[in-house]
Amino acid sequence: MTVRDFPSSATCYAEPNGRVRPKAVARLENSTLDETVSAFPVTICARARRMTYEILKIRCAATAIVLALAAAMTANAATLMEARKAYSTHLVVSVKAPQEYAYSSVPNGAQEVTYASGALRLKGWLSTARPGKVSPAIVFLHGGFAMDAGDWAVGQQLVKEGYIVFMPQLRAENGNAGSFEMFGGEVDDAIAAGVYLQGVPGVDPKRVYVVGHSVGGSLAILAAQMPSPYKASASLSGFARLTEWIDHFPRIVPFDLKNANERAIRDPYLYVTSVQVPLFMFTEVANSYAVEANETFCQTVNETSSCRHTVIKGDHQTMIEPAIRATVAQFRSLP
To answer: Which residues pair with 310 in a beta bridge?
Structure first.
């Protein structure tokens, strides 16, 4: 069981022998509930020194139990779905997505539509071409935290391959409703986009896929670990060690980075056994660290599910076109 860090410059915690000593940050890992209670911070050190261990347990038990049980449910969850059911993200700030955007008119070959994600009504662009009476379809999750016509241009390669393409805007992006959660509720949006696409006339509901690039690629990994309408998932330049990536951008993180539960519901590595559909990962050769991380992730996934990792020539951007070609080939190879 892992409980969140408790940052404070003036906290103490009681040891089982009754001794109380100050500690700036108490990291409680692999604790029993009793140990968690005994290490719960007390804000007034001088007074705490005069208290016995049993008094401290009674004083702190209610809060400690709540924290411990929440952390235990998340940490002991076998699947990402169970973890997300056990713990809902708690934002410390309610903001829109951090990437600036300019209003873009709907591109040629697309129509603006609205899809539902829980109580939210979000926008997206849906391709107007209908290759046949019934066609396969792809939800394309754009990179970054805003969508524009350049993203749509990337998705056109899939339209040319005979897919109906839906590119959703996620919560808090491009003026949409909701708050930016940074791989929290956005996972729900990614799955809701697939549910919407299944119901579009001309779409074969049994051949709906998800493809994402960069931020969208990491979302595609998380979506593959959840129940969804998708037949398969492809991650282009996503990163399986997602929480490490998040740590590099603390200024835009809207949740408590020190909260283990928040990190857990955003960490694909914790739930390698819960990948539910074939997952295809493509990583640019220029990013050797991501190549290693994603290869290790895929190897582990293959012990219980299906994951194929391919290294693509190029950098973060130039890898997109060849990765899409490879994605289409992989999707078509599925029974």
So the answer is: 282
Q: Residue 242: which of 286, 306, 183, 172 has the closest Cα?
A: 183
User: How many other C-beta atoms can be found within 10 angstroms of the C-beta atom of residue 241?
Assistant: 19
Instruction: Report d(CA 316, CA 193) in Å as an integer.
Output: 25
CB-CB contact of 260 with 75 (8 Å): yes
> Is the torsion defined by CA of 96, 101, 102, 106 positive or negative?
negative
Question: Model's pTM, two decimal places?
Answer: 0.79
The whole-angstrom distance between residue 321's C-alpha and the CA centroid of its chain comes to 24
Residue 123 CA, distance from chain mean position:
20
Burial 155-190 (b: 16+ CB within 10 A, else e): bbbbbebebbbbbbbbbbbbebebbbbbbbbbbbbb
DSSP for 67-109? HHHHHHHHHT-SSHHHHHHH----BSS----SS-----PPPTT
Q: Tokens standing for 135? A: 């066609």
Dist CA 287 CA 313 (whole Å): 10
CA distance 197 to 19: 60
User: How many H helices and E strands in the chain?
Assistant: 11, 12
User: What is the chain's pLDDT, residue by residue, as a tens digit (335 residues)?
Assistant: 232 332 333 333 333 333 333 333 333 333 333 333 333 343 334 444 444 344 444 444 444 444 444 454 565 788 999 999 999 999 999 999 999 999 889 999 999 999 999 999 999 999 999 888 899 999 999 999 999 999 999 999 999 999 999 999 999 999 999 999 999 999 999 999 999 999 999 999 999 999 999 999 999 999 999 999 999 999 999 999 999 999 999 999 999 999 999 999 999 999 999 999 999 999 999 999 999 999 999 999 999 999 999 999 999 999 999 999 999 999 999 99
